[in-house]
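Ligand-bound model needed. zinc ion.
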Amino acid sequence: MTAISAADVPALKLIAQVFNNACREQGITSNQNSLFSAEYSLCVLCGAPTAGYKYCFSCNNFMRGDYGTLGPDICAPLFYAIEGRQSGTDIYTYKKPLGGVNRALERMQAVTYLFVKYHLKCLSSAVNSMVTHVVAVPSGRGRANHPLSTELLPYFGESLIQVEAHRTVPARTKGRQSVIAPSIFELPQFRSTDHVVVLEDTWVAGASALSLAVAVRQHGAGVVTIVPLARLLEPNYDRTRWWLERNDPLPPYNPEFCPVTRTSECP
Ligand SMILES: [Zn+2]
Ligand SMILES: [Zn+2]
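Prediction:
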């Protein structure tokens, strides 16, 4: 168990009432049992509620598809963004220039800061391979200086090599990427000893983050981790609503919960 230092209480206060840890449920500190429940489970990749399966629908498609063997070694979503609540609004608002203090951006920064401080090392320990690089998923709309790169990536610090991925296809004007297409990214070559973290702001079906993770592996990295800050949950999906009804109110965000092991114990 990681104890949070007093100096980090202000950062925690910013987010505790708005964010909820991904994969941490009401009344229990671990989802280990639920993985084997016949009624439902949480996707072992993205953390979304499923009807008792190992993977949710979109992650299952990925695992069964052409790139299923090239997926991430670890996927560690930090919090659930729930559509219709403040957490679901923050993931859009943090990107907008507001001309004043952007509280959503402050919360996204706080959750990133707490993750890097308390659990970045867990990615290294879990697979026995030091994290060496971090790369942000580039904007699907071709936006330069995206806040994911300019405001959140810097929390990963100077000790990691920050890599830029460029899209080789024209930006989409609307909609989200839905197919796995690693060839759309231009990347440097990695070494087999490299452990690359792919940083994503929001995982909906994961296509962008998974595409970049596959591309990173195809460019030689030995270990690939995806850290989606938010796993978006949409209550209009039956399974999500069903799960929320049984878990509300979700426990407030707790940085002592490890997003890598999905328990209160770090590896
Ligand atoms: Zn999933
Ligand atoms: Zn940890």
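The radius of gyration is 17 Å.
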